[in-house]
Amino acid sequence: MIGSLGVIETAILIFLARILDVSLGTIRIILLSKGHRLEASLIGFFESFLWLVVTAQIISHMENPLYYVAFAGGFACGNYVGLVLEGRLALGSVIVRVITRQDPHLLVDALRGEGFAITTVDARGKDGPVVIIFAVLERKKIKKFLKLVNQLSPQAFYTIEDVREVKVGMPVPANGGVRKVEFLKRLFWPKRK
Q1: Is-above-0.70 flag for pTM?
Q2: Does one domain contain both 6 and 80?
Q3: pLDDT (tens digit, 9 = 90+) per residue, 31-74?
Q4: Cα dihedral across residues 98, 100, 104, 107: positive or negative
């Protein structure tokens, strides 16, 4: 297959194949860390199949140093592309903690008005009383949430952490906000911003 192509075409093919292979691997590892075993297994099948087919062809034609550069460059770009794809898919859920010294009522009402399920806790900080707002939400809704926080409580401090699992009964589906079919649709047909 590769032997009939020119040097430049072969290098480009090696580069693109490595981008695809490593991107799939990056997404697979992220899915595993979030507990999405079925999706990770499916991607792992295609990742290893592609690696076997392409690597067998590449290794038998590695006589040109340009191929080594293409192989390594594809690996590096594949890591980047995989992370960009995962960011666009916005897989899983996060917990957001907002700590504010301001009166939180306006912010709390706005967040609840936008459909966010939140919990507030009165607490004491270094400089006096504070309110902590907790919310578990899908990663794709982080920007909308933070936009309200920054508009209505610009001095607020917040942290965001990944959540591996959400108990059934919360507003976010128990599988972290990604249904099996929706995941595959977002992987192959991501929405344009």
Answers
A1: no
A2: yes
A3: 888 778 898 899 999 999 888 877 777 777 777 888 888 889 99
A4: negative
Q: Which domain holds residue 15?
A: 2-89
Is 184 part of any domain?
no
- Phi, psi for 3 (deg, rounded to 5): -60, -25
CATH code (residue 116): 3.30.70.120
Residue 190, domain member (yes or no): no
Task: Decide: helix, strand or coil at residue 4.
Answer: helix
The sign of the dihedral angle between the CA atoms of 12, 39, 177, 150 is negative
48 domain-assigned: yes
